[in-house]
Structures are given as structure tokens and as C-alpha cells.
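Subject: Cytochrome P450

B.,
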Amino acid sequence: MATLHASFTNSFSILDVVLLSLAALAYGVHRLLRVPSHLRHIPTVPLWPLMKSYLSGECEEQRVKRLVLPFAKENNTHVVLVFCLGDWMVQVLEPKIGKELLENPVVRKQQQPDDMLLWRLIGRNNVFMSDGEMWKRQSRIMRDALRQTTPIDVFTTLARTTFSLIGDGGRVRWSDYTNRYTLDAVGTTVIGYDFEALAKPHGSFVRRYHDVMSAIASPAYVVLPSLERWLPRWSVRKMVDSFVDDFCKILQEKREKPGNDVITHMFQEPGMTEVEYRDNAIVTFIGGHDTTAGALATTVYFLARFQDIQAKLREEVHQVLGDEDPRADHYHHTPYLNAIIRESMRYNTPTNVTVPRIADVPVQVGGYMVPAGTAMALNMCAAHHNEAVWSAPAIFDPDRFLDEAKIDSGNWVSFGLGPRRCPAKNFSLYEQRVLISMLLREYRWTLPEDSPHRDFLKNGFSAFALSLPDNVEIDFVRIAPNATFTPM
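Prediction pasted inline below.
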């Protein structure tokens, strides 16, 4: 009987521990998810629809259009409070307020938590994450290096390689080709390393990169980064560390065999540390090809949907480039091409949200005083689809960019704003112009009737909040020599 009593008491104690643990966990989650009292004056996007969106893997662009912007319109505000990355964040939905925020001298980039494996991959000592004097130095170095390497000839060669793979046409998974094209462009010209993504799409390094990004982008761990403390993913950490180690080996090869690339120019700067070399190389590799790949997939998709726009653009390209290889000065005379690229990047903004900012003192943001220590960001997707800023933002209309007098150029924020604007802006734009203009001379294309993107473009989930069109297939037909440039 005593043994039975002791067993019951022991079981009861274990049950107590379990219940107390669950209660502590529930209390912790409650405290994490409730709106802090000092932020309740800011219009707050309802939490549970957001959580459902996050955990379902809905992409940032669709969440903004479905939840954030309608809420902001209903509440007549351009500043909202959103639960994001495991914390409450003030998001700005209007470009001019965003510019004031990003250029405020008391505002700095927020140090991101160690929990997210994303930061374990890209590091913190790079032009993307750094601030203050480190950022000024790295930004200057990056801009100087990129100015010395705008390799239109490389883009031209890679475009021809892409066409050799497409051949006479047929159905092509275009989003896959843009990923491979931009990966080789960044690898060759920025890293000084040929990843052979076009020639060997299933090559070891390319495959491992996609495996790493897929593993990191678990919706639950992106929404609640603290899960990495509670339920650490040791196998994913090992995968990330192994990828970074192999990337460092590529950098060492580049140090021993310098060339005309961005990393070689960076190595010539005496003030940079080994960690800075590594972090800048990795973040440039990732950000430099994913964003442009998404932009290229978006533009070709819209040209497939709107045959009249495709035909008009082909005529402009034919008149300006003729049969010549692309040159930088060609694109001074292609206003329609430039307008289409800008409209594509407005409609499906490659990077949707800026890196969060923070201040040690209260900051006025729009009509609200934001307390010190609060995360703040410009939501660029929302800024590009804000009806108070853009006329009919849900319509794809390149003509809106043809008359600069009718549009405020400061409202287009695809590459960011102010001095923190993406240093690779021109690199990306030339990369896009070359491939699209050459593609127009070689092919006509349409969207398949059974395309899942028939009604609207669908992006995949991204841990970086990027707009990456998911499995976009296009039907290509090669243009016969001397063919007239008419709509299909």
C-alpha cells in the first residue's frame, strides 16, 4: 500500500511539472503575442489572421495586399503595427514617410536575434546588415567595385547560353532559367567563380544552396525565431555551416587567383577583415541573384500575358539594337523597356520589406510617436500598392513610367531609398535589360492556358520576404530570321 502511495505521489509530481511547464509556455506565448501597452496607440493589424497567413506559408506580397493594405485603408493610416519575426514592428506603407524614417539620423539598423538561421548564413558584418562607420566604409568599397564591373558582355554570353538551352522553343520553366542565369551572372562577375548553374543545374553547389534556403525557410521558425532555442534544428545548422565553409574555400581560391570581379576589388581594400569579406560575399551572392531572378521572371510573365505590350517592346528593341550586341548606350534609347522593368519591379517588388530599424529615443513616424526600442521598417510592397500613392496600383501599366512629369520618382522604391539604396542597382538593371532585349529578338512567348498564374502571379514563400515567382512556365516560339515584328 505504501508502495502504491509513493508511486501515485511520484506520478502526481511528474504531472505537476508537465502542467506547470505548459502553463509557463502558454504564459510566455501570451506575453509574446499581446500588443505591448506602449504601442497600443498605433493601429494594429489583427494578429490571428496574420499568424494564420504566416503559418500557411503565404508570401509577403499576398499578405500585404490581402490583410495589411485593406486594414490601413479602413483605418485611414500609412503607419501600422504588425507582428513580424517574433516581435511587434511598426511598418510604414508610404514612400515619403518611409524616406523620413530611413534618413532620420537617430535611427539605426536593428541588431537581429541570433535565433534565426538566416543570420547565421549571411552574417552581420556586411553592407546589408552593418551600420555607422562600418557601413560607410563597406558601402564605398562595394559601390567602387561594382562601378568597375558592369559586364554587359558577360550578360550577353549568358543570354546566348540560355537561348541554346531553350532551343527552338516549347514549354520552359522560366523561373528556373532566370535563377540559373542570375546565379551565373553573380558568380562570374561578383564572386569570380563559375557556378555553371546554366550548364549543370543539378550541380553540387547550386543544389546545396537551394537545399539550405529551403531548410531555413520553415514558416514556423521564420514567424517565431525563438523556436530555434526551444526546438533547435541541429541538422539545418550543420547544413548552413557546411555551405558557409565551402563558400569560404571559394573565396580563398579567389584570393590566390585574382580577377576582374567585385571580390578581387574588395580584397585590395586593406581595412576589411576576413569576416567582412566572407559576409559581404555571401550576402551579395544571395541578394544579388535571387532578387534579379524574381524581377526577370515577373517581367517575362507580364509580357506573356499582354501580347500587345510584348509586340510594342519588341519593335523598340529591334529599332534600337538591330542585330548588334547590346551596349550600355543602347539602353539610353529604350524608354519603353525601362518603363516595363520599373513597372514589373513596382508590381512585384523583389524585396518587400527593409531591414528593421530602431532608435534609442522616441521617433515621430507619420502621425505617431514611436517609443524608443521599437522595430520599424518600410514595407516597400505596400508602398507600391498604396492607392493614396499610385493610380490603379493593381493594374500592370508601364505607361505610368513614360511621362516623368506625371509621376513622383521618389515613390518607386524597388531598390530602397536614400543613401542606403541597393549599391547593385545599375548592375541588376543592365542584367535585366540585356536578357529581355535579346530574348525579344529570338522568341515570341505566351502563358500556357493551364498556367496556375493565369489570373495573377503567384510567389513562393521566402524567409527573406522576397517576391520569387513560383514555377512560372512559358511557351516560347523562336522567331524566324527576317520575321516581321507583329503581335502573336
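The chain has two domains: 1-34, 43-478.

T.
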